[in-house]
Design goal:
By secondary structure, this protein is α+β, with helices and mostly antiparallel strands. The protein has 14 helices and 28 strands. The protein has a 15-stranded antiparallel sheet that branches.
Length: 620
């Protein structure tokens, strides 16, 4: 196996409380438990030797003298079972074809639990295949030791406060390898085996002995769960399979007990190989999650949208963040605002990209745009009374009353730069959204509100953006007041209704972005050389921005350009349809993986493009 396969060479499985990444070679090298933001059990992505992994791979066949060397090769392929989170890794050899089917059972996902299970089914569909299993857990990001007990078909790894139970099913005997476990098994066509890993609190009961029937029942149940869930999707457009995969990915990265989506499944994956832009994205950003609400709602997933709105209302009920603001930019999935950042010096990082950070020091940054995104999320329902009661409406109204006095402040901006506070145009834009949506909610639902004051604030922000956020020199809206720097976050302007998608000022801005931020249809966030962000190194194009660019092109009437950009962007998806945060110069995926922002923007772009293509066809 490769020590550090490309970021994109992974599929994701999960149970709506945590998830695991499995490489195209059958190596599970990312898994945290009991939650997405818990310490890792396997973190081979960040350090192959110290992080731990759980590999089930096919051995190369023995080759007799004189046989072609290609007969010793193992070719791998990976796919999802259609419209599910069941991952299949296939091994093609000269002697046979084998498969490893990976999934996590989904049991009562809305009830938080310490017990999570990964099921790995081995089977051979042609000839014979010899499989090798290696289970090498490393608790607490590889910092904590563990004890090992092996007894035939079972092994127990006891870490501090947590235990991992490995159970083998079929003709597979587990053997101790120092503090790890190995096994080999040769299967013929039609034969099966399985390895079940159950992680739970140290004082929890051991899982029952597995049976073939029980494993089959779990497989059928998880398949039916995902088919039933995606069956609620109302999208019937041109990119059905792609949109379904993005929806399932967003669902997989939502913590069901609270309804809080995380930004990405991983931490510490670099935006530049060898660089320092390596952050922990396993938390709930108010911004990302609020925009995910729109994507899920537009696909018909109202329950998921309402669940996050409930989580957001809970944050308002908490009565303020530790930094003194009504909200902070990110939280843990349970709403805990404390995300102290530390460097894990003992991990070398993916392909030696250090430092590896856990926690996120940007949590206490001032980013004024989150108030717009929060109100935007709360407004994603026709009737406030159906989701938000009177007392909670009062909290929402109080937030807007507070914002009337606080919107006109410099901040760190959407990109969480560490180069100082500025008057970012995007932050003002989203404050405009806060007042605009709040006014609409109050008027449509007959709720008490200081509409005169809110309207005055909304109109003042619009005038300020049109004067201070607009550069006559560039003929474009700019990143922050007094600058000439372009910023792709402003692609949100037509999406939130701040400006008409064919307004001359907007078309001029879009043209300026085309010239400066767009490279072969891929879009950079901004130019760090022109606007230093306090960090070393460079980054790739930002996939969120590329899909927002497609959206803007489509709404601007540049439909053929939009479709070409969208089709090209889809070629950068990995082999199972997943996207990381960024795309590098040679098409490689960079940053944490998979990223929710990218997939929600893909959905928005697909829906907009479908609408505009249909409109074009109807007028042809």
């Amino acid at each position: 196996m490769r020590a550090y396969p490309p970021v994109a060479e992974h599929g994701m499985i999960g149970d709506l409380q945590t998830c695991a990444l499995v490489s195209s070679e059958g190596v599970l090298n990312w898994f945290c438990s009991p939650r997405f933001d818990s310490p890792s059990i396997f973190a081979g992505l960040l350090d192959h030797d110290r992080g731990g992994y759980f590999a089930v791979t096919a051995d190369a066949p023995d080759v007799a003298e004189g046989e072609p060397a290609r007969n010793a090769e193992v070719v791998t392929r990976q796919l999802y079972l259609a419209d599910t989170a069941v991952l299949i890794t296939r091994f093609l050899t000269h002697e046979g074809v084998g498969e490893v089917i990976d999934f996590m059972p989904v049991h009562a996902p809305h009830a938080a639990t310490d017990r999570h299970q990964v099921v790995r089914v081995l089977r051979v569909v042609r000839g014979t295949v010899r499989f090798t299993l290696e289970c090498r857990p490393r608790f607490d990001y590889g910092r904590a030791p563990h004890d090992l007990t092996v007894d035939g078909a079972t092994a127990r790894f006891d870490g501090p406060g947590v235990t991992a139970h490995l159970q083998a099913l079929g003709p597979m005997a587990l053997e101790a390898d120092e503090r790890d476990v190995r096994a080999t098994v040769t299967l013929a066509e039609g034969e099966r085996a399985a390895a079940l890993l159950t992680v739970c609190d140290a004082d929890s009961a051991a899982p029952p002995a597995p049976t073939a029937d029980a494993v089959a029942e779990e497989f059928n149940a998880v398949r039916e769960f995902w088919h039933g869930w995606i069956g609620r999707c109302t999208y019937r457009g041109r990119w059905q399979e792609t949109v379904n995969r993005s929806a399932i990915t967003l669902k997989l990265m939502t913590y069901a007990p609270t309804g809080a989506p995380i930004a990405a499944a991983t931490m510490g994956l670099p935006e530049q190989v060898g660089g320092e832009r390596n952050w922990d994205y396993r938390y709930t950003w108010v911004r990302d999650a609020s925009l995910a609400v729109r994507a899920m709602r537009e696909l018909g997933f109202i329950e998921e949208a309402n669940a996050f709105r409930g989580w957001l209302i809970e944050r308002l009920r908490d009565g303020g963040a530790p930094n003194g603001e009504p909200l902070q930019i990110m939280y843990r999935v349970d709403g805990d605002p404390h995300l102290s950042e530390e460097v894990l010096d003992h991990l070398e990082g993916w392909q030696a990209s250090a430092p590896v950070r856990v926690g996120n020091g940007a949590a206490d940054q001032l980013q004024m745009d989150i108030y717009g995104e929060a109100v935007y999320a709360l407004a994603q329902t026709g009737q406030v009374s159906g989701v938000v009661g009177y007392d909670d409406w009062q909290r929402s109204a109080a937030l807007l009353d507070w914002l009337c006095d606080h919107w006109d402040r410099p901040d760190e901006g959407i990109w969480e730069t560490r180069g100082g506070q500025k008057d970012f145009t995007y932050s003002r834009l989203m404050c405009w959204v806060a007042f605009d949506r709040g006014i609409r909610q109050a008027s449509a639902n007959a709720r008490p509100a200081d509409l005169t004051r809110w309207t005055a604030a909304r109109d003042a922000i619009l005038e300020q953006i049109m004067t201070s956020g607009w550069s006559e020199e560039r003929g474009a809206f700019v990143q922050h007041y007094g600058s000439a720097v372009l910023d792709a976050s402003l692609l949100m302007m037509p999406l939130v209704g701040f400006i008409a998608p064919k307004d001359p000022r907007w078309l001029s801005t879009l043209d300026a972005m085309d010239r400066e931020l767009v490279s072969d249809s891929l879009v950079y966030r901004y130019d760090p050389a022109a606007s230093p962000d306090g960090l070393q190194g460079s980054e790739g194009t930002f996939s969120l921005c590329t899909f927002l660019y497609v959206y803007a092109l489509a709404r601007a009437g540049r439909v053929h350009q939009a479709r070409y950009a969208f089709d090209k962007m889809l070629t950068y998806a990995n082999h199972v349809g997943l996207f990381a945060e960024e795309v590098g110069l040679t098409g490689e995926q960079l940053g944490n993986f998979p990223q929710a922002f990218t997939h929600l923007a893909l959905i928005a772009a697909a829906l907009a493009l479908d609408t505009e293509l249909d409109r074009t066809a109807s007028t042809a």
